[in-house]
Design a protein that fits this description.
Distance between the termini: 95 Å
Helix content: 40-55%
Order of helices and strands: HEEHEEEEEEHHHHHHHHHHHH
Number of helices: 14
Strand content: 5-15%
Radius of gyration: 29 Å
Structural class: alpha+beta
Largest sheet: 5 strands, mixed
Shape: elongated
Number of domains: 2
Length: 368
């Protein structure tokens, strides 16, 4: 009786082994992209994770000395300051996709991860503004928001129809920036600005100068440029607040000559040494202007040199953003400053985004 029973056990065991060997090997692939994917994928013995991905999914990758680096899986794509993190059973893998060990039944998840927390916070702040605030500002042809869209390379479906008569110089300068983002501003607009522009105040003179030089016609801005240079060099810099110093630095950055070299250096030094010493107290508008001025000189506002109270300049600016994407002037304010701080902060964030994207054109008022 024992022999038949033993033979039966042997046959059953061999049958079970054969059945197991015939079962398909599979892993589950989860892609956290714009169009999420969760799919069980069959593979063959000896396949690598990279083989499985290539066989089944649209894949972007770069060959490196450490093997292929995944840059995109279907709708999931890495961008500036991000990479694709790969998890095996919820643990981040520490080897290449062509070397990671796995077995049938494992799950691999692919998702975007950030290389820099500042860049992550910046991206979220921009998306919040664009989602909840941008439309109304564009409808009103608000200068800083239009410039921000230009620098982000976003489409501007607007058609300005400005009347130049009886407009003050500041309004005319803003019209120049808006028109130049869409098409070439008319010579009539530049002429109107040239007639109204003055150098009484360093802040406004800087704005006028940056607008006038966009004409690229010295006959339209030459006389004002001479007056502007004289005004900058004669300014008592120690008496200037950060807002004015920032505008002066931005304006002197577009001057093509040597006459302002020494003054420009002094202005930048003063600004860098007094980032958090604002005449009207620390506020989002001043932070935004300072951030843009520093970026125009290739200075990183998130550098530890600009950390105060454990926060860098970008973090201080972002701390003023409200839940609807707008910005309040000071942290003590209960309501947002929609007319001044919010559009200025948006433009500053756009320039910071360009910095993270490796763009060298970091001047907010320069339009190519």
């Amino acid at each position: 009786m024992k022999k038949p029973f033993s033979l039966f056990v042997l046959i059953a065991t061999l049958f079970l082994i054969a059945a197991c060997e015939s079962e398909d090997l599979s892993v589950t692939i989860v892609v956290e992209g714009e169009e999420p994917i969760e799919e069980e994928v069959v593979y063959e013995e000896g396949d690598t994770l990279f083989d499985i991905l290539q066989e089944r999914f649209a894949l972007d990758y770069e060959e490196t000395d450490f093997g292929p680096m995944i840059e995109g899986v279907e709708s999931l794509e890495a961008g500036p300051m991000t990479y694709i993190a790969i998890y095996k059973n919820d643990d981040l893998i520490d080897s290449g996709v062509d070397q990671v060990a796995f077995e049938s039944g494992d799950t691999f998840r692919f998702e975007i991860a950030w290389l820099d927390e500042n860049a992550k916070a910046l991206d979220a702040a921009l998306e919040l503004f664009l989602d909840q605030q941008a439309a109304s500002y564009l409808e009103d042809l608000q200068t800083e928001v239009v410039l921000g869209f230009y620098h982000l390379n976003r489409d501007l479906d607007i058609a300005p129809d400005f009347e130049y008569d009886e407009q003050e110089a500041g309004a005319l300068a803003n019209m120049v920036f808006v028109e130049e983002t869409l098409e070439e501003a008319s010579s009539e607009l530049y002429e109107a600005l040239g007639e109204k522009a003055d150098t009484d105040w360093a802040y406004s003179a800087s704005l006028y100068y940056m607008a006038l030089v966009l004409s690229e016609d010295a006959s339209l801005y030459g006389d004002f440029e001479d007056a502007f240079v004289e005004r900058m060099n004669e300014s008592n810099l120690e008496e200037k607040d950060n807002d004015t110093l920032s505008m002066m630095l931005l304006a002197m950055s577009v001057y093509d000559g040597e006459a302002l070299k020494e003054t420009k250096t002094e202005v930048q030094t003063l600004l860098e040494e007094n980032v958090y010493d604002n005449l009207y107290g620390n506020n989002s508008a001043s932070f935004a202007l300072t951030l843009m001025a520093l970026l125009s000189q290739g200075v990183d506002p998130t550098d530890e040199e600009y950390v105060d109270g454990g926060m860098n300049l970008l973090e201080h600016l972002l701390s003023h953003q409200m839940e609807d994407g707008s910005f309040k002037y000071t942290l003590d304010d209960d309501e947002t400053d929609t007319m001044f701080s919010t559009p200025q902060a948006f433009l500053a964030l756009c320039m910071m985004q360009k910095w993270y994207h490796g763009d060298d054109a970091l001047h907010p008022f320069v339009i190519d």
